[in-house]
Amino acid sequence: MKKTGKKTAVIAAVCVLCAVLIAAVSGKIWLDFRRGNPNKPLYERKVLLAGEMSPQERAADFAELCGFLEKNAPAVSSFGELYGINYESIKAYYSELAANTETYYDYYACLTGFMNNIPSAHTTVGFPAARLADDNMEYWLSKNYSFAEVQDYWFETLHLECAKHYESEPEKIVFSYYSGDYIGVLSDGDKYGADRAVLLTVNGVPADDFICIFSSAYKLKYDHAAGKPFRDSIIFNDGFGEPCSIEYITAGGETKTAELYCGAAAEICLNYTDYFKAFDGISQTGENERAVQRSAVSVLRDEENGIATVFIDSFNSETVTGKVIADTVKTVSEDFDNIIVDIRSNTGGYYGYAYDVLSALSPEDIEISDSIFCTEDSFKRNGDIFGFKRGENGLYIHTEKTVVKGEAAEGKRFYLLVSDSTASAADLLASEFKKNGLGTVVGVNNTGGEKNGTVRLGFCTVSGIYFYYTEYDSVNPDGTSNSVYGTAPDVFLTADAENYFIREQLRAQGEDIYSLENRLKWDGVLRQTCELAKQD
Fold first, then answer.
1. pLDDT at residue 299 above 80?
2. In CATH, what number does 172-281 get?
């Protein structure tokens, strides 16, 4: 198998870019659990990939993936009733697709599409190389040479596939989900008139139905207000992928159709081609093209209205620790009585950070008592190391108790902003904030939030393709599965498409889109929360 040679030098860049394609995989990390890891035998399995996989080998590889998830990931069996999508039908569809893929790349894309049809914040196919970013998993995988070698192979497979499209530059048409509709938000040159258009059908199927088993690089989620599944975006292009016909209504009210291409195989290429161009030295991302790198915590102060907003975008930073974030909240609280805490972009990380922030938001001590569930297979691997005992429906239960010392000043009004991207440790913060009445939760359900989700890693024996999942679930105070329903807001507010266009216009004009003045122009949820704070 061919090795890239240059891969290690670009691990950091790859790991940043992975966020485009995969859902958050951050979760509780028990470093003291590492050397006694009961998953050791799983990680030590040898990868069998030695040449072209036969249809039978691909079918067996996919069946192994499904069987493992069914036995170890509770989310697989818990989302069907809400979503109205039968897991077995998804499995059957992708099983046939996997057996009939023609290339290695198509098989990788097939598994990506399948995992993204399981609405779980922690369940996703990994990008070859990103494994090195997590020491907890690297500890066991570093000596598994068959696994390491095959990651080089899959990396090169994606590399070569993207290289096919270096010169073609197909036009990309993006429809993003806003308030129940898929709105055209990005079209290179807009020769199809799709900007601000509303997508109606794909291959004659209504867009809402098409996305349900659609092979996509974007996660299936659920809109609790509209009562239907959705994906953040659907990307079409006019150059390569699965042929499709789309119907849409333009901003001017005209109904149009276009013959285009779509699917996970195309979306992955479209999202990674620029990276691989830079990897090959063909192009280099300029300073003006880079996304603004923001700190894990930042503050906007509205002195005139007495409102401060603390943005907590991550619980993963090694430097911006939970204590640093908590101290920021405390400092802001010294000068303001109305504090908005924004965790809409926070996909989780260290649970201790969430506890630190809870401490800064609560004037009284909080006793956190969560019942966490896992499957029988997971219990057999973990044993009594965490004290799981057999419960109902064949699941095993463990109650975790933690006392968080309250350190917030009295008389402060807190508003917590959440979104469908708020997950894992950030969902724990949202759940306990709401349960303990620390303020008002604003936004939308963070479906798939998995507040007690601990990231785990497995891999397919034949292909060596690896994946993340969580073996834990918990129950919300209303009895619903946290993995499915997340934490419901007290006040439902959602962004609309117009906010997106305002933001992009400001960006095109070279404006600082994160200044208070400009943020309030395009961030409708924050603006309305500020109005709520003024009324209170």
1. yes
2. 2.30.42
